[in-house]
Amino acid sequence: MRSRSRSNRRIESALIICVVVVVCSLSSHITIHLLKVKTTYSGFRLYGGDAQKRLAILHGSSLAYGGVDWAKVAERVGCRIETWATPGSSPAEWEVQDRRRSREVLQAFIVVSTYDLNECSLCDFRANIVPLGQSIADLWQTRSDWPFCKRLLSEYAVMSIRKLFPTVGRSDGVMTGIRDHLHNFFRGRRGGDSGESVRFGAGGVPEIRERLSEWSVARLQRRLVLMRSALQGRHTFNGPKKMALTRLLQRAASQGPVTLVAVPVSPIYQEEFLSAEVKANFEAALSELQRSCPQANVIRLDHIPALQDNALFSDLVHLNVYGQRIATALFLKQLHTTQP
Amino acid sequence: MIFTSFEYVAFFLAVLGIRSLLHSFSAEKWFLLFASYMFYMSWSIPCGLLILATSVVDYFVGLALGRMQHPVKRKWLLVISIFANLGVLGFFKYTNFFLTNASSGLSLIGVHAPRWHYDILLPAGISFFTFQSMTYTIETYRGNLKPCHSPRDFLLFVAFFPQLLAGPINRAKDLLPQFAQRVRASVFDFEAGLAQFALGAVKKLVISDQISPHVDLIFSNADKYDGFTLLQGVLGYGIQIYCDFSGYSDMAIGSARMMGFNFMENFQMPYSSTSITEFWRCWHISLSSWFRDYLYIPLGGNRKGTGRTYVNLLVTMFLCGLWHGASWNFVFWGSLHGIALAIHRIWKAWNPLASLEENAPFQLLWSLLSRFLTLSVVLVGWIFFRAQSWGSACEYLQHMVGWSSQGTRLVSPYILPAFVTVVLVHFFIKKDRNWALEMPQRSVPARILGYTALALILVLLAATDSAPFIYFQF
After folding, report:
1. Same domain, yes or no, for B173 and B250?
2. Which residues of A touch B465 (CB under 8 A)?
3. pTM greater than 0.80
C-alpha cells in the first residue's frame, strides 16, 4: 500500500514537471514572438548588387556595415560586396561563415575594432555558428583561462536549452520588449530610450542620425552598466577570436587582395573601458596579425582624429550617419592610395 | 563551480546518479566525501589540503576529548582546536589587516615602519568551515555530543559540498547524526528541495544579478549622483545582498534536501522585523545563533548585570563585523548593529509607551514605525558594508541624508520594482512559513501553478551572466 502511494506520488511529480516544462516552453516561444526578440543569426546584405560584377566579401559586425557606406565602396572597387549581417559577430563566427561559402571571391574586407576583437565580448549566436570542437580546439591552443573557457562553453549548453526555452539568456531583450510594449500601450508612441532612429538610405545602408553626445547622462550610465556587465569589465585580445582572425586573413589573402580595417569606437567608450594597457594590447594584437599576413592592406580609421567625437556615434560603439560619411570618405581615400 | 552554473548542475546530477547506484552505505559516504573535495578543489587544490588539515586536528581533538576526563586537560584540548581554527582563519584573512594597522599605528607614534603587505590567497569558505568545525569540538567539550569515531564521517561533516562555501553553518549535533544512518530523499523531499533550489535561483539570477551592475555603478561614483539616486543605491544593495545570500542558502538547503539531508534555515523574512533584535533572529540565522551560543552566552550573556550585557552585545557584534571582513568598515557595521541592539534592549526595559500597547490603532502605527526604523538602521549599515572605504561610506551617507540635488539622477528600471516586490513579500508572508516545504503538500493544480510561475520568471528574466555570490568573499 505504502509503495503504491509512493509510486503514485512519483507519477504525480513527473506529470507536474512535464506540464511545467511544456507550459514554460510554450510561454517562452510566445514571448519571443510577441516581443520580437531577435533569435536568428542569419542575415545577408549585398552592396552594389549587379550580378555581372565580380564578388568581394565583407567580414564584420554591425560596426562594419554601419560604419562605412559599403555601396560607395562597391562602386569604387567595381565589385558586388556580400556580407553576413550577424549582430555582435566577431572573427570566430566570420571564419566559419567564410568556410561555408562555396563561391570564390576576388577581394575581402575585414572590419575590426577594440569592441569586436575583445575576447570577452561574446556573440549571442556564437554557439549556433562555431562548432563545439572548433571552440574547444581554439581554447586549448590559446591556453585560455578556465573561467573564460567555462563562459564560452556554457554558450553551447545555453544553445541547447534555448531549443526548449528560447528566452533563456535573453532577459535584456525581454525587458526591452516589455518596456517598448508598455510605452506603446500607454503613450501610443515608441519610447525614446530604447530605439535609435534608423532609416535605410540607398543601397540598404542604415542611416542612424542619433548622436551619443545628446544622450542624457542617466541613459548613458545605464548603457555603460549593461556594457560593463556584458564585457565583465575586461578587454583581452589574445584568444580564440584572434586565432580565427589570423586564419581568416591568411585564407582571404590566398584568394586575392585583403583589406583589414580598424574602425573607431566612441571617445566615451575609450575613456570608460580602454586603458593605456588595453590600447597597447590591441596594437600588439594588430601588429601580430599584420606580421602573420603581410599581404593584408591595413587601414586605421580608429587613428583618425576627425572621428574622435561623440557626436559622430549613435551609441557607444556605432558610428552614426554623420560619422559614417566622414569614415567612408577617408576610407575611400586611403583605399585609393593603398590599392592599385 | 557556483550553484548557478551549468557546471554545478552537471556535477550535482552526476552525484545524484552515482549515489543512487551505490548499494553500500560506506561506499556512498566515501563517494560523497570524494565529491565534496572535488567540488572544493575545483577552486584550489592547496586550499582543499587546508580543510583536510584543520579537520584532522579537530577529529583528533574530538577523540581525545571523549577519552579525557581531567577538566584542565580538556580545556587545553579545546584551546588547541580553537587556536588551530582561528589561527588558520586569522592568518589567511586578517594578516594584512593587522600588519597595515600596526604600520599605521607605529607611524602615529612617530616610528617609521614599512608598509607590510603579503599576497595571501583567501581560501573560499574559510570563515564558514572553520566555524562549523568548531561547533563539533565545543559541543564535545561541553559534553553535548559524543566524539565522532569515523574519520570519514567527520571529514564529510566539515566538507559536505552544499554548505561548504557559504553555509549555512550547520551544527555538528544536527548534521553528524545524518551521516550515521543511511538517508534517501523521498519524492516529497526531492520536490521540496528542487522547489527551494529554484526559488534560490530566482532570487539570485532574476533579482540580485539584475540589480548588481546598477548598484555597483552608483557605489563606484557616489559623488556624481543626487540624493535620490544614492537612496536607490542603498535600497538596491539591501535587496541585492539579501537575494544573493538567501538565494545561495536556498540553493544549498535545496541541494541537500534533494539528497535527503536537512540543513538549518538561514533567513526568515528579515526586512519585516520590528526590531534589530528580531532582525538578527531572521538574518543569517546560522551565524547569528553561532555567535549567540559560542560567544555571547559564554561571555555571560544577560546574566551578569545590565552594563555587562551591553558590553557583551557590543563585543559580539564587533567580532561579528570582523568575521565578515578584515576592514574597519565591517567593524563599524558590526558595532553599529551592536549599539542598535543595546539601544533596543534599553528601550524594552524602559518601555515608556507600555500603557498604549493595548490600543489597536497605536499598535498598527507602532508596528509600521518600528519596521521603518529597523529597516533604516539596517540600510545605513549596508552603506558601510558595501563602500570601498570608510571615507567613501561617510561621503555617501552625507550626500544621501543631505538629499543633495547636485549630480545626475539615475532611475534604475530594476532597483525600485525589486525593492517594492521584496518588501511586499516580507510584509505579507509570515516569517515561519516555508514555501518550498508547503508546496509539495498542496493540490496538483496549485503545484503546477506555483512551479510554472517560478520557472517562467527564471526562463524569462534570469540574468545572462551570473556574478559570484557576495558571501564567497567572506
Report:
1. no
2. 151, 229-230, 232
3. yes
